[in-house]
C-alpha cells in the first residue's frame, strides 16, 4: 500500500508517517499544502491519500478540494480525510456520492491506532469508513419526523454501524448477535427507508448518507 499524507501540521504529518512506516506501510511522500500534495499524487501514483480538511492558504476547504482533484486525476485513489472536529457539510458532500474508497475520521481517532489502521485498510480495499461521532451528529441533526422514526432501536444501531462502513460480520460481532439477525435487520431497514437493499457495504453507506443528507437539506 503506497500512501501520500497531506497535513499542514508538521508534527502530526511526521507522526502519521512514522506510525504507518512502523506498521510496514509505504509512505511515499508527505505534503504540507494542496499543491505539494497534488504534485506527489502525480509523481508517485499512491494507492491511498490521507488528507486534512483544512489546509493553507485559507484553512477552509482546501483539503477537500485537493482530494476531489486528486480523485479526478487518479480515479482509483482511495482517500481518507482527517478533520479536527465534526464538519457535517464536508462529511456529507464527500461521502454521499457513493464512491468507493472514501473515509472521514476525526483526528483524535489517529491516537486509537487499531481503529485508525482498520479504517485505513477498509478504505484502501474500496470500502467506506466514517467516524462514529460524525454518524452520531448526522443522526442527531435529522428531522424528528423523518423516516428514521420508523426504525426500531436495534435497527438504528445496525444502521449507525453500517454508516461507519462495517460489514455484516463486523456488525454482528459488535452487537453480539448472529449474522443472520443482522441480515434481517438490514432488509427491514431498507424496506422502512424505501430503499432497495444492497450487500456491498459502500453502496449501503452511500444510501444511508444520501438519505440523511437529503433530510438535512430539506430543513
UniProtKB/TrEMBL annotation:
SUPFAM superfamilies: C-terminal effector domain of the bipartite response regulators, CheY-like
Domain Response regulatory: 2-122
Superkingdom assignment: Bacteria
GO molecular function: DNA binding
UniProt xrefs under CDD domains: LuxR_C_like, REC_NarL-like
Domain HTH luxR-type, chain residue ranges per copy: 144-215
InterPro entries in alphabetical order: CheY-like_superfamily, NreC/VraR/RcsB-like_REC, Sig_transdc_resp-reg_C-effctor, Sig_transdc_resp-reg_receiver, Tscrpt_reg_LuxR_C, WalR-like
BP-aspect Gene Ontology terms: phosphorelay signal transduction system; regulation of DNA-templated transcription
4-aspartylphosphate: residues bearing it: 52
Keywords of the record: DNA-binding, Phosphoprotein, Transcription, Transcription regulation
Gene3D superfamilies: 3.40.50.2300
Name of the featured protein: DNA-binding response regulator
Upper taxonomic lineage: Bacteria, Bacillati, Actinomycetota, Actinomycetes, Micromonosporales
Amino acid at each position: 500500500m503506497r500512501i501520500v499524507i497531506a497535513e499542514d501540521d508538521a508534527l502530526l504529518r511526521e507522526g502519521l508517517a512514522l506510525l504507518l512506516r512502523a506498521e510496514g506501510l509505504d509512505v511515499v511522500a508527505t505534503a504540507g499544502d494542496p499543491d505539494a500534495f497534488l504534485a506527489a499524487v502525480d509523481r508517485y501514483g499512491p494507492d491511498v491519500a490521507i488528507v486534512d480538511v483544512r489546509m493553507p492558504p485559507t484553512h477552509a476547504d482546501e483539503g477537500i478540494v485537493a482530494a476531489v482533484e486528486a480523485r479526478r486525476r487518479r480515479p482509483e485513489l482511495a482517500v481518507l480525510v482527517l478533520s479536527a472536529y465534526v464538519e457535517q457539510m464536508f462529511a456529507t458532500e464527500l461521502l454521499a456520492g457513493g464512491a468507493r474508497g472514501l473515509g472521514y475520521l476525526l483526528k483524535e481517532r489517529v491516537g486509537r491506532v487499531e481503529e485508525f489502521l482498520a479504517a485505513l485498510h477498509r478504505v484502501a480495499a474500496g470500502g467506506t469508513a466514517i467516524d462514529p461521532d460524525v454518524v452520531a451528529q448526522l443522526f442527531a441533526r435529522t428531522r424528528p419526523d423523518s423516516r428514521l422514526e420508523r426504525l426500531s432501536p436495534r435497527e438504528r444501531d445496525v444502521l449507525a454501524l453500517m454508516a461507519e462502513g462495517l460489514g455484516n460480520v463486523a456488525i454482528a460481532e459488535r452487537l453480539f448477535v448472529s449474522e443472520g439477525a443482522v441480515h434481517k435487520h438490514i432488509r427491514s431497514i431498507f424496506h422502512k427507508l424505501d430503499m432497495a437493499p444492497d450487500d456491498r457495504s459502500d453502496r449501503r453507506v452511500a444510501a444511508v448518507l444520501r438519505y440523511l443528507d437529503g433530510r438535512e437539506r430539506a430543513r
